[in-house]
Amino acid sequence: MTAIRTLAPADLPLMRAMLAMLGEAFEDPAHYVGVPAPDAYLSDLLCSRMFIAVVALDGSEVVGGIAAYELPKFEQARSDIYLYDIAVAASHRRRGIATALIAHLQQIAAARGTSVVYVQAHRDDAPAIALYTKLGVGEDVLHFDLAPDAGRD
Description:
By secondary structure, the chain is of the alpha+beta class. It has 5 helices and 5 strands; from the N terminus they run βαααβββαβα. The protein is globular, with a radius of gyration of 16 Å.
């Protein structure tokens, strides 16, 4: 049976295991573990209310994970949760783990009184789109990455 749990500041080893699992699942280990963040950085992140990490455990093995951010809004006294990354290890897919991870995040969102949990998907990622369509309402939007140094001379 897979256990779902929110990571706490003392869960640094599980956070590192989640990063390794994400790197493997996305076939991009260089991005997730190539230049590891220092322990102090990850500990601060896990202490922050703004960051949420949820893992799926098969025994002590991390087989799924979510990284999400609570984003306070400025126009009203409310916040949204942005599901930034979600993955399940290839050996554990098609078992409802991603759905269980999202349900756990939705419970966190409800307990915090947030207005919505939202997530982006690439247009060619059919499994992600099918999952999110099953769980929510989609919008057709464009995403742009803006360089932080744009416009400097």
